[in-house]
Amino acid sequence: SVRLLAGVRGVFAAEQVAAAVRPDNAHFPHSRMVIVENTNNRGGGTVWPAPRVAEIRAAADRFGLHLHMDGARLMNACVAARCRPTDYTQHVHTVSMCFSKGLGAPVGSIVAGPKPFITRAHRFRKMFGGAMRQAGILAAAALYALDHHVERLAEDHAQARRLAEAIAELPGIRLDPITVETNIVLFDVDPSLGTAAEFVARMREHGVWMLPTPPQRVRAVTHLDVSAAGIDRAIAAFRAVCRGR
Ligand SMILES: Cc1ncc(COP(=O)(O)O)c(C=O)c1O
Description:
Elements: H1 14-20, E1 33-37, H2 50-62, E2 66-70, H3 74-81, H4 85-89, E3 94-98, E4 109-112, H5 115-127, H6 136-148, H7 153-167, E5 173-174, E6 184-189, H8 196-205, E7 211-213, E8 217-221, H9 228-242
Parallel strand pairs: 1-2, 2-3
Antiparallel strand pairs: 3-4, 5-6, 6-8, 7-8
The structure holds pyridoxal-5'-phosphate (PLP).
Pyridoxal-5'-phosphate binds next to loops.
């Protein structure tokens, strides 16, 4: 079973981990693992501070828990926090990361950890039918992304902030631009603009694609394929839809 910890936009504290560990009692499952998601998607692209991850590790060690970092957007976190991946990964047992998303590879993710863990992961991948002999072409795209698309994530973050600042002032949009740390802009639409799904459908007519989360929350994401001109177009579309034009 999974216990979700209510943190501050997805970043929780070591005491919360300690409090969530199940007692040694036949009625409960054994607590085995803690996962931190960096950046945190539902939190709005929130960056974990590396010292906080170190605190979570200390708590995990106290209870014999495995600490995994879901670093699908780890490079966004590193660019925003101006740190290296190892500033985070030194504190965790295992880490995963996506080369698609902001890094721009067409497909591909990685999991890293100690050798026995990887040997076991290989086995599970085979069992689930995920093995692929011809993965080199995908690895090449991932290597290209690491060489060419990491520093530029700062542009995505600046574009996200610019979008957030422009739309925060519009009628019916609830958003604090200060919460936009990376490439994700989360906001709520007032019911007078419809549900999130209805709002997103109207924005799509203007060529702007976003993700609705019922009932009123919307997620906009910037990435390699979203240009500065594209953000200008998106802002114009927001203005038109929010002002009922
Ligand atoms: C936070 C997070 N973790 C994990 C994943 C899974 O990545 P993949 O499908 O490449 O394994 C995603 C993908 O959307 C994600 O957003």
